[in-house]
Design a protein that fits this description.
alpha/beta; 14 strands; eight-stranded mixed β-sheet; four-stranded mixed β-sheet; Carbamate kinase; 9 helices
């Protein structure tokens, strides 16, 4: 009986959030090592299907870095990173595309098997993500920065309650295919779709004062506080580009950004539909 009461309290806590976010677009990026974990992946997709049935309009952008690295290693192609970006030669971009296509199909098939209605597409299709070669301290090859986004096909899917599942590659004016950082692609899409929320699902709990101590997790930060932490060097390494993607989304009109650990059971629902959340929310302040 006590357990049943607790469950009912959780539902009541969720109710105002379900009402608030009804018919709102939420763009999520899902990547990292947990993509290969069947149990974690199923829970993430269950959360997304729940969101759709609760009246929200989820959009999923996925990564695939670890799987790409494994495939390149199997093909005896050396992986090199410059400024956190994978140098992508002509052979590498073909492998990147193939791996992302496989991941995309898997996510779509599993979402549909859970009762959702998902549709997979690549950023190169219908000029959805238009790219230019990414500038860096060294040549990067087929790595793209985003020049423009055409949301026409995405809005058609969203308006019919279909969950878009997007692979982060784009097409350049030279008609060549470019690899795009999934965090950047997701944050740009969130702005273009006027999303209510932008959520980064990653391998760490959120933004922490001490990255090795989960007890120092910040549940909520303002845009100004994050800017100061970056300036002071408190946010560094792999968390920096993720936080910068969150800030880009906020500055572009998205209401809230979140960083959550994908491997925590039903992290998406706990972050979106409870008062305290489970990761870090970043707000304009």
């Amino acid at each position: 009986m006590e357990e049943a009461i607790k469950k009912s309290e959780v539902l009541i806590e969720a109710l105002p959030y379900i009402k608030k976010f009804f018919n709102k677009v939420v763009v999520m990026k899902y990547g990292g090592s947990s993509l290969d974990n069947n149990e974690v992946r199923t829970r993430v997709l269950e959360d997304i299907v729940f969101m759709r049935y609760a009246g929200m309009k989820p959009v999923l952008v996925h990564g695939g870095g670890p799987d790409i690295s494994k495939r390149l290693e199997a093909e005896n192609i050396q992986t090199k990173f410059v400024d956190g970006l994978r140098v992508t030669c002509e052979k590498t971009i073909k492998i990147v595309e193939a791996v992302l296509m496989e991941i995309n199909k898997q996510l779509v098939d599993e979402t549909n098997s859970l009762g959702g209605e998902a549709f997979g597409l690549s950023g190169k299709e219908n000029n959805m993500i238009q790219t230019v070669p990414k500038e860096s301290s060294e040549p990067l090859g087929y790595v793209g920065g985003i020049d423009a986004i055409d949301t026409t096909i995405l809005r058609r899917l969203i308006d019919t309650n279909i969950i878009p599942v997007i692979s982060p590659v784009g097409r350049g004016k030279d008609n060549k295919i470019y690899n795009i950082n999934a965090d950047e692609a997701a944050s740009r899409l969130a702005v273009a779709l006027d999303a209510e929320k932008f959520v980064l699902m990653t391998d760490v709990r959120g933004v922490m004062k001490d990255k090795d101590d989960q007890g120092t997790l910040f549940h909520s930060l303002t845009l100004e506080a994050v800017d100061l932490m970056i300036e002071e060097g408190a946010i560094t390494g792999g968390m920096l580009p993720k936080v910068e993607a969150c800030l880009y989304a906020l500055e572009g009109g998205v209401r809230k950004s979140h960083v959550v650990e994908a491997s925590l059971p039903h992290a998406l629902l706990l972050e979106i539909f409870t008062d305290e959340g489970i990761g870090t929310e970043i707000i304009k302040g």
